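Q: A reviewer asked whether we had any structural model of the full assembly, not just the individual parts. We don't, so I'm hoping you can provide one. Inputs are below.
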Amino acid sequence: MDPDALAKAFVEHYYTTFDGNRAGLANLYQEGSMLTFEGQKIQGSQNIVAKLTSLPFQQCQHSITTVDCQPSGVNGGMLVFVSGNLQLAGEQHALKFSQVRDHGIFKIKPIKTKMFHLIPTPQGSYYVLNDVFRLNYA
Amino acid sequence: MDPDALAKAFVEHYYTTFDGNRAGLANLYQEGSMLTFEGQKIQGSQNIVAKLTSLPFQQCQHSITTVDCQPSGVNGGMLVFVSGNLQLAGEQHALKFSQVRDHGIFKIKPIKTKMFHLIPTPQGSYYVLNDVFRLNYA
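A: Here is a predicted structure for the entire assembly that you could use as a starting point for your response.
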């Protein structure tokens, strides 16, 4: 599988898991993994998943706009750069986090950007060594 | 210097050079460097700077909103994740690329996101191995 297709497959798997079974993301991190979430640094699979499962929304849906991929210089490693939107369930959250252009009126829509650094495992899959998440409010 | 301060210093140096002397960016890339610019992959210092200097605007100003930094797993390497805005000189470009909220009317404002993978050089500085640029239109 070529790197771009592999990166897209990983991103789809990650967000399907995030939106459907967030605790299942633990398998994608290791002890040396680091997440920077809106500027907060969190180290290790257990702490990262504790953070992701404690976010103040239970239902959400990610839509991906772009996926860029480059070899990272680590043997077999890949840098994956993702942009997209995050839609939360419930009107209150939708107003806060989503935007539509509707009859000429703009509401606030954040753009979510994410960077993964993926490292191959001996088992032939990948884990996330580096993970940076930012919501970019327009 | 701690990694976060170093990352911020690098980003400031990069954008000061970009906005003032774009050809001078050649010193920050090497032959193995890769730039992905809005989905287009470009390899090597010379090709990267040719792309950056041929962008259809001569005057611009970057403003940085966030800088996130993590060790990359490569010896001494750092991943740097930047978000900010790009303001171009001239009204025509400003309308296309910039947004202000002005008297209750929203115009289009892109958010620029960028990822650098910095690798130490034997001379004690850093070069850019990986570079991904995306304009995120809200």
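A: Points you may want to mention in the reply: Chain A touches chain B through 31 residues (CB under 8 Å). Chain A has one domain: 3-137.
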